[in-house]
Amino acid sequence: MSGSTLIVGNNEVDSVMPATLFKQKYKDNSADKHVYLICSANTIVIDKYEKHPHFIRMKFHSFVNQDDKRTIIEIPNFFGFKEASIIDNGLTIKYNDEKISGLELLIRVLRNYCCIKQYIDYEGKSSFRKKISKHEKEICKRNIAKIDNIIQTYCTFDIEYIGQAYGTPKRPTPRSATERLIEGHKTFSQILSDFISMYRTKDIRVVQINCTPQISSAMLNISLSNAKDTAEKVFNNENAFNKKHESTIVTLVEAGLIRYFHPSNYNKEYLDSFPSKTHHKKYYDFLIQSEYDHIGFKIDIGQECIALRRPDDGEPVDCLSRSWNLDTGELEWPLVDTPFSQYLGDSFRGEILPTKIGFESNDKQLLK
């Protein structure tokens, strides 16, 4: 087997409510994120915030809960919300003179629990036990056990639209996804209008990611007769890591995500036409000049404690990858068709999930 694979993707991600896009601090911090995913998720309904000596208790539910059960998570004081005030008869939390939405507070809390999870073992010990009390460690222990279920119920997003905001390479400064969305985006406005009027149990979330070449990999048959050509191919492969091609990398991430997630209600381009030899200026000429034979993406959003619903089977995933053969345009089996096995499968919270591509019954043994 021979060929070269370029994997593009992200190493940063954030998720916010649409209103947060207009806050100056967020705009400044999201300047390097150029691809955006407009998503829908179950509305978080706050039942009550309760302040206790060592924590704030957050009670909430979603409209899709059939058993009418409420979810409870506790926010220990050392997470930084000790001075937060509870207003509106227990329905709103205010911190630093700013009201925080239920979703954004929940994601902050989940991120904190995920950060300390690795330090607390099953006996409740921790590498920073001098910094927090025994009681606070017990709070962490019982709430960490709820994380996966909360993410699946409240923080698993369905993608409605995918776009990018980099602009042309001639722009003096690349445009961020935040700038693109708040400066007047017709489709974004249409989605917000549709969900307000037709989907009362759903809210819109905006996920933004940066875009970088993740891996360039080559499996080549080298001999005395082709050594020069092979060296030139490897040299050209490295072209993808040149800063001047950043806008093309952004386009590749956008197009690959659209092709895989296929959000056809609002997206129109790339749904069934990626990769395509007709997209010369957008990315195809670049891939040919760089001598790649396969193109793929790898997206990791686990750091944000959210998940995306996989279109194949509805499973929540927080890390996934796909690749295509540039010659045929076909989606490939990661373990068989590509010269670089970029990932054994999709994952959620560190657990590998077998995929339909590349994991028939015999292949699942590779995961053991």
Task: Using brief descriptors, characterize the structure shown.
globular, alpha+beta, 368 residues, 18 strands, 4-stranded mixed beta sheet
Q: Could you walk me through the main structural features you see in this protein, from its secondary elements to its overall organization?
A:
- The longest helix is centred in the first third of the chain and has 16 residues, at 102-117.
- Helix content is 26%, strand content 27%.
- Helix 2 (102-117) crosses helix 3.
- The chain has helices at 24-29, 102-117, 134-144, 147-154, 177-182, 186-198, 227-237, 246-261, 280-289; strands at residues 3-9, 13-16, 35-42, 45-51, 55-61, 71-76, 85-87, 92-95, 98-100, 156-164, 202-209, 212-219, 294-300, 307-309, 316-317, 319-325, 346-348, 351-353.
- It has a six-stranded mixed beta sheet. Strands 12-1-13-16 form a four-stranded mixed beta sheet. The chain has a three-stranded antiparallel beta sheet with strand order 4-5-6.
- Mean pLDDT is 83; it is low at 219-230 and 359-368.
- It contains nine helices and 18 strands.
- The chain is globular.
- A hairpin with a 2-residue loop joins strand 17 and strand 18.
- By secondary structure, it is an alpha+beta fold.
